[in-house]
Design a protein that fits this description.
The chain has nine helices and no strands. The chain has 156 residues and is mainly α.
């Protein structure tokens, strides 16, 4: 029941209520990947970037395909509109680590290559960020597994 309510909030783009509801769902069902996937997006929209990044890392480390295989229409994924709004901010010179990581998170729901691009930009801002390096390793490994031609580098 809570997950259905969370989905309604998510579809209505009420990210605060969606985040609260999905957190409750995950408290009762810690392995609910659908709730986790939507909670990650919701948290990026309510300013809980660190928590979102941690959940994102956990999910891609556990099952990257669950995000990569997102169908933006079927899953009512708002990432395209959220990315568009956030990319406008970066066009005007705002390139904070948080903004770039958030774009990396959101892009993975639509395009793994764009996700890699933004996490690489995040490393330009903070080269020794362990979480960003670890995320990039997972993303590049996924690309390597798919194409066998991508240069995979281990995080330093």
């Amino acid at each position: 029941m809570n997950e259905m309510l969370g989905n309604q909030y998510f579809m209505a783009r009420n990210y605060m209520e969606a985040a609260n509801t999905f957190q409750s769902v995950l408290h009762d069902e810690p392995n609910n990947l659908n709730a986790k996937k939507k909670l990650i997006i919701s948290l990026t929209q309510v300013g809980k970037y660190s928590k979102s990044l941690d959940l994102f890392f956990d999910l891609i480390n556990e099952n990257i395909d669950f995000i990569v295989d997102t169908d933006p229409i079927k899953d009512d994924c708002p990432c395209a509109e959220l990315v568009n709004n956030l990319e406008l901010v970066t066009k005007y010179g705002t390139h904070s680590l948080t903004t770039l990581q958030t774009l990396g998170i959101l892009w993975l729901y639509c395009d793994i290559n764009k996700s890699v691009e933004y996490f690489e930009k995040a490393l330009q801002v903070k080269p020794n960020d362990e979480k960003t390096n670890a995320i990039l390793y997972i993303l590049k490994k996924k690309l390597s597994d798919n194409s066998q031609n991508y240069d995979v580098k281990y995080p330093s």
